[in-house]
Predict the structure.
Amino acid sequence: LKNRTLQELRSKIYEYVSGESLSEHLGVSRTSVWKYVKELKGEGYAIESSSKKGYKLVSVPDLNAYEIAHGLKTEILGRKVFFFNSIDSTNNYAKTIAIKGCDEGTTVVAEVQTSGRGRLGREWSSVSGKGIWMSIVLKPVIGPESIQIITLAAAVAVVKAIKNATGIETGIKWPNDIILDGKKLCGILTEMSAEIERVNYIILGIGINVNHEGDDFSQSLKHIATSLKMHINNTDNLVKEQKSVDFRRSEIIKCVLFELEQMYNKINSGMNDVILDEWKNYSVTLGKEVKVIGKSEYIGIAENITQEGRLIVRRIDGVKEEVLSGEISIRELMGEGKKAES
Ligand code: BT5
């Protein structure tokens, strides 16, 4: 009923809705309406009340489960959302519900993660209220050897979603980083449970820095990380009035879920070629000199990716190597200077 109250107010945003009509529509007393309005206010909805005119919704919070559901255009992804003010890691929670057999597409979102994770046990900084920290449970009909394609598809989906939601163009650094102005804007952590021939479930974790200002990053991250807001606040990219505007994270999440669902449908119908082509379009890695870091380290040119999403690197001595995700990380030596072109 609280959501119904919100629905009614939202459908007439900036207009007064009388307490009487709300109580009629919802079939509850005016005291109950008042109680729901009070709860909604506590959740960050700015609602003005007047004893004569009723209630007027004037602004909505930028992130909660309702705001993600409102206007979501997907069929599967994000149809069920678990929203937390604070959690250790959305990937951890997604895993526990996946084990219990939650629906495909179930999405976990948190305001803050206290132990956000990157790959190989690295930390993921997830400060409160500034970013998108989310995980999606997927159950694709693919074999475990194809898991890398999910990461690549997710990267494409994030680039497209950010472009659609904000107009900002970003690029993909193999395999799982989204780059803006030469810095890391988003990381993707794909974890799976699989048998020899079959994937049971995949947890797709996505972290996007949205409304961070420079000081929201630790000293060690400052020179390698950026946010959408920092990009806009950079005077070169600024239309004056835009300054310091916060992005609505729920809008970006809806766009990510939508673009991701398009990619997911392609994966499930075996259209990996299309995904790889799109990935190549947005890549800031291919054609660049890269340093492959791992057991054996070497420098070469990132020439292409394989059908499975491995990076093909031609070493200086001409030998071609296929680099597997997860085993090693990659660092561009050049081309990450100023602007990530797509
Ligand atoms: C990643 O790992 O880039 C995957 C990050 C995935 C985060 C999401 S948030 C929702 C879900 N729940 C989780 O617990 N995780 C996922 P990797 O490629 O290993 O990069 C990690 C490195 O990125 C760190 O060692 C830092 O150098 C850097 N880093 C950490 N936090 C960052 C941030 N907020 N922005 C940019 N770079 C960051």
